[in-house]
Specification:
Number of helices: 36
Shape: elongated
Largest sheet: 3 strands, antiparallel
Helix content: 40-55%
Strand order of the largest sheet: 11-12-13
Structural class: mainly alpha
CATH topology of one domain: hpI Integrase, Chain A
Strand content: 5-15%
């Protein structure tokens, strides 16, 4: 039902009441009237009832009739307390005085004051003993008694209560029992009724408390607080749980849930048998879920301005569920600072922990131990999946769990509701119409508010933490919320940074833990511009080397190792890092070298031998058990020998061999065809595979390509692999153009990688790219070797070096492999292969121009190629080293 179809007293009761009062009290402002209405009648049902009365008959305020409803009397009294003079207070129907009306005169319907009600009660209840009209109380049989003839001849009921309780708890002193009774019921007449209940049912204190009055349950609790024994707290007679029993069902005390289950009726809107939690404008029953959709109980939210179900009020302003924010506190169970319930108590609890507290049982629908969300008509437990009612979706027609109801009344499944236009609401902060996250905020605004809360100390962010806030805020709101809420350790690290002092630097993060969280945070800060980019592999290696070298026991050897690390290993890596970042394989190799050097130095220390006095025999003795250590310490010993730290020591190194493999040309072009024509292969994998197959690029160099290496024009795409940019043939140029557009579209402060990794500011790792290309049948090393043999057999070594970015010596070595130095390799490189796709073929070769012909031009008139794999080690001289 739409709110426009309701009568005005149901849709806008405060407005109807204000208009009625203003018609009588012209000088009273409408704002004051509204505050009086909200203070006097906090419940909406009371306001609607008053508005209906005043809309139908305004004379209830001016004539002071004795038959006026109690709600009108309360409202008139509140108005007169605020200075109203024209409204008239209802008068007593018996004495005619303007007093508080507490009773009803039988037969006439007129309400009477307390004095007249007392006189009427005395006359209607003559004493059962003497017949005087002085009604005081009633005896055990319910007959009236006067003051002169009290029940039980006026015996103090306290003695009887103490006697009954001490029969059950003989060790409890009489004085303690009396204190407990007075704490529960201080009035003598009511103590007598409690005694009668205990005498009628002796088992009320030992397990049958559900059959007596609620005061019996309070008495059990009071006695147990005073260390009473043999008392049994009764469980709910319907569900058996040991919970408070505040309600009554069929004459028995029961819990609130069982009482609600007994009041179940078919809901007028959804048709389910649910406890009645509200009613429509015309009195039809509604369940709790449908009640929240009932426009009768909706009001205008003070923050978002929409007419919605009001969740709470703040400073007398109504707020809907999306705009209302629960107070934040440290949860007493998980310790996280979150919006919590029961903040004013000593045990606040967040919503996540509240859901975990829900009872668990074996669901009768799926037979699994799960949290109980529903119950059957017989009280059997059901989980959320089994208990939810499945009905046909009004949009897609599938029978699924109904997730929401559209404004026109259509019941929608979760998928249809996710795409329904009614789900998009304007954000209360930025005004963007989108799917709101919470508290009336869109995901972007909610993420910034959440991040500001985490980075604030006492509600303020210090200047040094603002770059962190700006860097993290550059992420999409949904991603940032997931990143913040996924791991509590991230919030703990951010709070530690907010509580610190000074700017956030790489050194600040290096001293914090846990390492994985810090590394992930560092990536986001570098991508957002809060921190400068640095070589993380090199930085991590420097920290590792400092810790590893400290394990050397001999001080002199420690100094030599530190000099070797600083002036040989790190110097070479830093010089290399000017061109491209240190790879994981390079860092792993350095760690392997230093590990073996530390073992050698510590072994010499255990032998009580200084490094400067180490002999070749001692070195050979150390290498006898593990000959593979030799290559790892060769560089260190050569460096110490050159700088005079040791005598001339030699280590036998294995003979360098080249065991690379080639693939046949037809297999190579089959891989090229598959990369071009298979639409299921992602564009990055296509581009990387073609660069390895056609331009002999190693994957470690492919993954570090950035947008700076690409020059895009409307007709051509140039990729700088070496000193001279190479023109990409179609369709590879289209793939590179796509990767370049995606890289330039990213909002990062660091390098714009053509092959971005999972984390911001990081490129795709070589190992991950290998895992993506292997299922395609492409072996990167074999593809690169084949392409190098092909190019080296056709082009001068200088051209290969400048075009592909390989060293001149490496180009010379591959030229010898593919040239006249090895006739068999040259014959392999010149064997025929299928004609390449038209899109990769180039124009006819111009005289003296390699670019005109390209590496993809077909040949003819040659025999078939050899098998798929050809080992160069079968025909290559093993003594002739070849560069990578």
């Amino acid at each position: 039902m739409d709110a426009s179809a309701l009568p005005r007293y149901a849709s806008d009761p405060e407005g109807v009441i204000a208009e009625a009062v203003v018609a009588v009290e012209l000088a009273m402002p409408a704002e004051l009237i509204g505050s009086v209405v909200r203070a006097t009648f906090p419940r909406g049902a009371q306001r609607r009832k008053l508005a209906e009365l005043l809309q139908r008959d305004l004379s209830w305020l001016t004539q002071g009739r004795s038959e006026s409803p109690a709600i009108v009397e309360r409202f008139v009294r509140a108005l007169r307390e605020q200075g109203a003079v024209h409204v008239q207070q209802p008068r007593c129907g018996a004495c005619g005085q303007a007093r508080l009306l507490v009773g009803v005169l039988p037969g006439s319907g007129s309400r009477i004051c307390n004095t007249c009600e007392g006189r009427r009660r005395h006359e209607a209840n003559p004493c059962a003993v003497c017949g005087r009209h002085e009604f005081r109380t009633r005896d055990r049989e319910g007959r009236p008694r006067c003051r002169a003839h009290p029940p039980d001849d006026g015996v103090d009921p306290m003695d009887g209560l103490c006697q009954v309780i001490q029969q059950i708890c003989p060790t409890l002193p009489e004085q303690t029992v009396a204190e407990a009774v007075r704490a529960v019921e201080p009035v003598t007449a009511r103590q007598r009724k409690l005694l009668w209940a205990l005498e009628d049912r002796p088992g009320l204190l030992t397990g049958q408390g559900a059959q007596g009055p609620v005061k019996a349950l309070h008495l059990i609790a009071a006695l147990r607080e005073r260390e009473a024994v043999n008392l049994v707290v009764p469980g709910c007679p319907y569900c058996g749980r040991n919970v408070p029993l505040p309600r009554t069902r069929n004459g028995l005390r029961c819990c609130a849930e069982c009482r609600s289950a007994a009041r179940a009726e078919p809901c007028a809107w959804c048709g389910r048998d649910r406890p009645v939690m509200g009613r429509t404008h015309d009195g039809l029953p509604l369940c709790q879920t449908c009640r929240q959709r009932n426009p009768v109980v909706h009001q205008i939210c003070a923050q978002c301005g929409e007419r919605r179900y009001i969740q709470a009020r703040e400073d007398d302003h109504p707020l809907c569920g999306r705009c209302h924010q629960y107070p934040t506190a440290a949860c007493s169970e998980c310790g996280e600072r979150r919006p919590c319930l029961h903040v004013s108590t000593d045990a606040p609890i967040c919503f996540s922990c509240t859901r975990k507290r829900r009872p668990r049982a074996i669901c009768v629908g799926c037979d699994r131990d799960n949290q109980i969300s529903y119950r059957t008509a017989d009280g059997e437990p059901l989980c959320s999946s089994c208990g939810a009612t499945h009905r046909p979706c009004a949009q897609c027609g599938r029978t699924l769990r109904i997730h929401a109801i559209a404004p026109n009344g259509d019941e929608l499944c979760p998928t249809c509701w996710r795409h329904h236009p009614a789900r998009k609401r304007p954000c209360s902060e930025c005004g963007t119409a989108t799917h709101l996250h919470h508290y009336g905020l869109c995901p972007d605004c909610a993420a910034r508010a959440r991040l500001r809360e985490v980075l604030s100390v006492e509600g303020r962010m210090r200047p040094g933490i603002e770059p962190v806030f700006k860097a993290l805020s550059r992420q999409p709101g949904t991603n940032l919320l997931y990143w913040l809420n996924r791991r509590p350790a991230r919030r703990s690290v951010l709070r530690a940074l907010a509580a610190g002092s000074g700017p956030v630097t790489h050194d600040t993060l290096d001293g914090m833990r846990p390492a994985k969280v810090i590394d992930n945070l560092r990536m986001h800060l570098v991508a957002g511009g809060a921190l400068p980019a640095r070589d993380e592999q090199l930085a991590a290696l420097e920290r590792w080397l400092a810790a590893r070298s400290a394990q050397v026991r001999d001080p002199e050897s420690h100094k030599v190792l530190q000099a070797y690390i600083a002036w040989h290993l790190l110097r070479r890596l830093r010089r290399f890092a000017h061109h491209r970042p240190v790879s994981q394989a390079q860092a792993h190799g350095v760690r392997a070298y230093v590990t073996q050097v530390v073992r050698l130095l510590n072994w010499l220390h255990t032998q009580d031998i200084a490094l400067s006095t180490c002999t070749q025999d001692l070195l050979d003795t150390w290498l006898d058990d593990y000959p593979a250590r030799g290559p790892r310490v060769h560089s260190f010993l050569a460096w110490t020998s050159r700088h005079g730290h040791t005598r001339q020591l030699t280590v036998e190194l294995p003979i360098p061999t080249f065991t690379g493999q080639l693939i046949a040309q037809d297999t190579r072009w089959q891989l090229v065809n598959r990369l071009i024509h298979d639409d299921e292969i992602p564009v990055p994998d296509k581009a990387a595979g073609l660069l390895a197959l056609l331009f002999a690029q190693d994957l470690s160099r492919i993954v570090v390509l950035t947008a700076k290496h690409v020059e895009v024009t409307p007709s051509t795409v140039l990729l700088r692999l070496g000193q001279v940019p190479a023109q990409m043939p179609p369709p590879l140029d289209g793939y590179i153009r796509t990767l370049h557009a995606q890289a330039t579209a990213t909002d990062t402060a660091g390098e714009r990688w053509l092959f971005p990794g999972r984390f911001p500011a990081q490129h795709l790792s070589r190992s991950q790219l290998v895992c993506r290309l292997h299922p395609l049948g492409l072996r990167p090393r074999m593809a690169r070797n084949t392409a190098l043999v092909e190019l080296a057999s056709e082009l001068p070594a200088l051209v290969v070096s400048r075009l592909l970015g390989v060293h001149q010596n490496t180009a010379d070595s591959w030229n010898r492999i593919g040239g006249q130095d090895n006739a068999y390799a040259a014959e392999v490189a010149s064997r025929p292969y299928p004609t390449p796709p038209t899109c990769l073929s180039s124009p006819p070769r111009r005289a003296g121009s390699w670019k005109g012909r390209g590496c993809c031009a077909p040949r003819s008139g040659r025999p078939r190629p050899p098998p798929d794999l050809i080992k160069l080690s079968d025909f290559r001289d093993h003594r002739d080293p070849v560069g990578p």
